[in-house]
Design goal:
The complex is a heterodimer of chains A (350) and B (312). Chain A is mainly alpha-helical and 350 residues long. Chain A has helices at residues 2-10, 20-30, 32-52, 79-84, 104-115, 139-175, 177-192, 195-206, 211-221, 224-237, 241-248, 253-290, 301-313, 318-345. The longest helix of chain A is centred in the C-terminal third of the chain and has 38 residues, at 253-290. Chain A starts with a helix and ends in a 5-residue tail after the last helix. Chain B is an all-alpha fold. Helices cover 79% and strands 0% of the residues of chain B. Chain B has helices at residues 2-30, 34-39, 45-55, 61-74, 87-122, 127-141, 144-158, 171-178, 180-206, 209-216, 221-250, 253-258, 264-274, 277-305. Chain B is globular. Classes of the chains: A mainly alpha (350), B mainly alpha (312).
Chain lengths: 350, 312
């Protein structure tokens, strides 16, 4: 950096040659699919932030509509259809009194807290923008809340896993010898057990739900792929001349590992990070669906799909559609973005 | 060859020991005192003491670890904590249904994905190729849960083409009646990622010199693809298929749960819900052993497919 600046001041008229990131950014900008998918990802990211800060969908748990209120574009439910439903559209209270619903107690508690404000006399809308769930909560707002949960879990777990994978890979690849043997041993243990089984085993042991728990489970088990790639990169880079030069000027091991080599392998980590976000979003949905994921008072796409499963039998398809569409758009966008990122950062690969 | 196998088996010992330690640490240290889990809500100190003695958790850690290794070696993991059925019995009876669903699934998905991938790799860059790749990306982004829920609802519940769920007594009934829809869903879910993956394997080979040489000496396109390219692309494909074999032992969790297939996957989910540790421990250990054996077999298979591969 300093050298570049010094050289620049001496020969100011010479244009600076673009670096790796500038070139990558230019290549990325030419990839129309990549830019479009990046916009989708950014949009979801903004939605996640807005929802997290309480700017949108903060009142998702308000029972704004009648039970199973249909989407506005479908129109209000025909009266005989409503009578034929298993639950009469009487509003709150009665609907939740299902003796086999394991969440009934918790939900009743939550709704009691909220219910103080929302008086019983409140007029329930016959339709909602994208329909309502069993308690007449707005499905669109739930989907936004679910986006917040699922995307946050995906990003946080991927960040954790990338951190672990990079540090382990750097140590193993850079030092070699017994440190390498140790981490390879560790790697072989984690890869000997199938991914989902390992996650389930840890979920069984922890036996507690929550967003943090899911992030930890996914983050602590998923580092193996990144580890192997980063290790291979470090093996390649540690013998190169610029590292010998760094050694000659007295750079410490840590400095050589994380200041000199890391920027040169960070594109590998970045692509893997992006891949793992998608993987973890999918895993979180499955875990939450099975009831080992986020807590019962948190909405995630997985818990929405869980509710949607029984709703579909009754003909209420909108919650399923909302969760599916939200997830499919984000995951497709993220996957295409990852492909574009890889193409931009590694032009040799094709 | 023999020396190689022996050496590889010897190398699995530290890994296996690591898995044993990991599982032991998870279930004996992180999981807290199992006696409280077992005793449930109505418990008094004597009861808990009693259960602790029965489980052996009042002993020092090294004794417990010794017991655990003995259990693994003898295959006797004791009884399930919730049903009191012997764990070995559970695993033996649940394996059949899992395999009934998973073996046809694996065979069909592999054959279809290889054929589809070879086709799109052959017409790479064309509209067909791009459409198939877009369809795969979108199809991959929909959760497996949605596929299961929608297929079960539409094909089984509404149209009545398949039983919604269930399991029979004899193999023919299970194979040709109950496992049809689970297999269909499994194939559809896995075909998209596999086609994408195999396409990239074929693309790596299709531009090689030997392909041009084969064409130059007048080999037909069919023979070039099916004999020359397929054989060379088969190493990564074999790796991928073999890596799915240990999964046959864990079953397909979600599919088994939705379609009430009494397999190992459903049993593991039940065990996780009930904190039935012996079942989870046993499955984890056995699958880890199976994974290591399969890895060894994969390497031996490479040698059979590609004589250039040196086993060292």
């Amino acid at each position: 950096m300093i050298h570049a600046a010094a050289a620049g001041s001496r020969v100011p008229q010479r244009p600076e040659s673009p670096g790796l990131w500038t070139l990558a950014w230019r290549r990325f900008g030419r990839d129309r699919v990549g830019v479009a998918s990046f916009a989708v990802v950014l949009l979801f990211f903004a939605l996640m932030l807005a929802s997290g800060l309480g700017l949108v969908a903060a009142d998702w748990s308000r029972e704004a509509g009648v039970n199973y209120a249909p989407p506005t574009f479908v129109g209000p439910a025909a009266p005989e259809r409503r009578l034929a439903g298993p639950e009469s559209p009487r509003g709150d209270g009665a609907a939740a009194a299902n003796p086999v619903d394991p969440l009934a107690g918790v939900l009743a508690e939550i709704r009691a807290g909220e219910g103080g404000k929302a008086s019983k006399a409140e007029v329930k809308a016959p339709t909602l923008v994208f329909g309502g769930d069993r308690w007449g909560r707005d499905v669109l707002k739930k989907a936004i809340k679910g986006t917040e949960t699922s995307m946050f879990v995906g990003l946080a777990a991927a960040a954790l896993t990338a951190l672990l994978g990079t540090v382990f890979g750097a140590l193993a690849g850079y030092y070699g010898r017994w440190i390498d043997d140790f981490f390879n041993w560790f790697y072989s243990i984690f890869t000997a057990v199938p991914y989902l089984l390992l996650i389930l085993a840890i979920a069984a042991v922890l036996n507690q739900k929550g967003t943090m728990t899911v992030i930890l489970i996914l983050g602590l088990t998923g580092w193996t792929g990144i580890f192997r790639l980063v290790r291979a990169e470090y093996l390649k880079h540690k013998v190169r001349e610029y590292i010998q030069a760094a050694d000659a000027i007295g750079a410490s091991h840590l400095r050589r590992m994380f200041v000199h080599i890391l920027p040169n392998v960070s594109h590998v980590v970045l692509v893997q990070l992006s891949l793992h976000v998608v993987l973890f979003i999918k895993s979180e949905v499955v875990l939450s669906f099975l009831g080992f994921g986020v807590g019962v008072d948190t909405v995630s796409w997985g818990s929405m799909l869980n509710e949607a499963q029984s709703e579909l039998i009754l003909g209420y398809w909108w919650q399923l559609a909302a969760a599916t569409i939200a997830m499919a758009v984000l995951v497709t966008g993220f996957s295409l973005f990852t492909d574009a990122l890889r193409d931009a950062l590694d032009p040799k690969l094709k | 060859m023999f020396a190689y196998v022996v050496r590889r088996l010897w190398q699995t010992v530290p890994t296996l020991l690591g898995v044993v330690l990991l599982v032991f640490f998870l279930f004996n240290s992180v999981g807290g005192d199992p006696a409280y889990l077992l005793a449930g809500k109505i418990s008094n100190p004597e009861q808990i003491e009693n259960i602790r003695r029965q489980l052996g958790v009042d002993r020092p850690y090294y004794v417990q670890l010794g017991i655990f290794i003995q259990q693994i070696a003898t295959g006797n993991f004791g009884a399930s904590w919730s049903t009191n059925e012997k764990v070995s019995e559970i695993l033996a009876t649940r394996l059949g249904p899992s395999l009934t669903v998973l073996v046809p699934m694996l065979v069909i998905q592999t054959l279809l994905a290889v054929a589809a991938a070879m086709l799109v790799a052959y017409v790479r860059g064309s509209l067909t190729d791009r459409m198939v790749m877009i369809a795969c990306t979108v199809g991959q982004s929909v959760s497996i849960l949605v596929y299961i829920i929608v297929f079960q609802y539409v094909l089984a519940y509404q149209l009545g083409w398949f039983p919604v769920q269930g399991w029979g007594d004899n193999l023919a009934e299970n194979l040709f009646k109950y496992s049809l829809l689970p297999v269909l869903v499994g194939v559809i879910v896995s075909i998209a990622p596999e086609t994408r993956l195999y396409r990239s394997f074929f693309l790596d080979e299709i531009n090689q010199d030997y392909v041009r040489t084969a064409r130059a000496k007048g080999v037909g396109e069919g023979r070039v693809m099916w004999v020359h390219v397929l054989r060379n692309a088969s190493i990564p494909i074999i790796t991928n298929v073999m890596s799915q074999l240990p999964g046959l032992l864990t079953g397909e969790f979600l599919i088994e749960r939705f379609f009430s297939v009494p397999g190992i996957g459903r049993e593991v989910l039940l065990a996780v819900e009930r904190s039935d540790f012996p079942v989870i421990k046993a499955v984890t250990i056995y699958v880890a052993i199976a994974t290591m054996i399969v890895n060894l077999l994969t390497d031996l298979l490479y040698r059979a497919v590609d004589p250039r591969v040196q086993l060292k």
